[in-house]
Amino acid sequence: MDNNIDALTTVFTEFYYWVTIPLMFLIHVGFCMYEVGVSRRKNHLHTLMKNTMIIPLVTVTFFLFGWWIYWAFPNGPFITGGLELEMGAANAPWSETMATHLGDRITGVFWAAFLLFSWTAASIVSGAVIERITSGAFWLLAVVIGSGAWIIDAAWGWHYAGWMVVKLGYHDAYASGVIHAIAGGFALGVLVVLGPRLGKFAADGTPRDIPPHNPWLVCVGLFIIYTGFWGFYAACNVPIISPEALESQITGETWTATTIYLTPTTLGAITFNFLMSLSGGMLVACLVSRADPFWTYSGGLAGIITASAGNDLYHPIQAMFIGGLGTFIAYRMHFFVERRFRIDDAVGAIAVHGYAGFAGLVICGFVLWGHPASVYEGYASINPLGQFIGAIIMFGVLGFLPGFVVAKILSLFGLLRVPREIELLGLDYADEHDAEAARRDVHDDVRSLA
Q1: What is the pLDDT of residues 429-445, one digit of tens each?
Q2: Whole-angstrom distance, CA of residue 436 vs CA of residue 419
Q3: CA-CA 20 to 30 A from 65: which of 177, 290, 437, 447?
């Protein structure tokens, strides 16, 4: 009888993660539509191809080394221990479980769920840098964050034995920091080097509005992202686990779903909180932006992201207010940073993902102060200091720093930004390396106007 129950549990778990994968694929579809809706007509194909090629590039590199990093790096390494070589070897590309293997029904779908998180992290950066970055530079940056930086932070703070969970009491059930804060910080690091789009700022530094080319496509894209987030939230859970497997009384006496930290939760709980945080974000964004459609839609996403760190434990009313507060912070920070530092974030990605994710981690530390971070004894409890340090690590150390360094290296070799002539004509007009042809066409246009 036990064997039959185990088999059913395995089949259910396999199917559960398999269903989350096409749902999360919709996030990528939504990002493509959203970015094309924001970009100007002359850059549509470049914007689409830049985002589309995330899929093969990050998939292959995540298979080759990204997945290994998650299992090998939870100790830092050398913070709470060394490399987890045994677990890493079991998830290396040459492992027998990383292929057709009837004895292991879970690795493939669990790997794919994490892979879709990788695509999401890279796509967040994609929107911020549209209309001026070279394709090659972006694709390299996508691999750095999608198969490197974010999976390191997942090993540290989104692994049941990650050192941040053990030592800091770090809690981030639905990835306010692990996906969103790191991607926002990474995008900010790239934009500091990349610079604003031509014409974004007047001579005196006053920012000019470059409105979305197609607001309808922006709306549809964001609603598809909301839909994909149902799969994102579900994929952050372990669908069913026995209390005996946890060797802890914290789960009670019945089988349960758990978070990535093996703390109990339910799909019902996150359904309440997902919708309430979405609503809180949209209401506040509509209010502070004076019903600007772009920011109202984006505010719903910011609300979800802010509350995501603790949406396994918040009351729905808490989720609504926390989502609203994070959205307010993100909106104000976006325009402050734009004016003060001349950062041209074309889609508000740093605000919606980075600032909201950072705020969500800090808020979670206060609201859930003292709650167990894990079912295992000896782990630190959730606390404000641990969450704040975690937010700094996610946004700054693993986000901003690698984004800035890699972008700086690319810029030094002249590989980061398209030539001025191509940016003026549009990245779809000519091959971005054919600068001389574009330069001649610009001069011919000027002469004809004269």
Answers
A1: 755 445 555 555 545 44
A2: 10
A3: 177
| Residues 34 and 225: beta-carbon distance below 8 Å | yes
316-374 tens-digit pLDDT: 999 999 999 999 999 999 999 999 999 999 999 999 999 999 999 999 999 999 999 98
- Residue 367 burial class via C-beta count within 10 angstroms: exposed 0-12, middle 13-18, buried 19 and up: buried
Q: Which of 175, 14, 244, 15 lies closest to 106 in space, CA to CA?
A: 14
442: in domain: no
Helices (H), 100-246: 107-128, 135-144, 150-157, 163, 182-194, 215-235, 243-246
Cα(182)–Cα(403) distance, integer angstroms: 10
CA–CA dist 254, 307 (Å, integer) = 27
The answer to whether residue 15 is domain-embedded is yes
- 257-to-55, 137, 138, 262, 380 alpha-carbon distances in Å: 30, 41, 38, 8, 22
Does the pLDDT value for residue 244 go beyond 90? no
pTM confidence score: 0.94
CATH number of the domain that residue 25 is part of: 1.10.3430.10
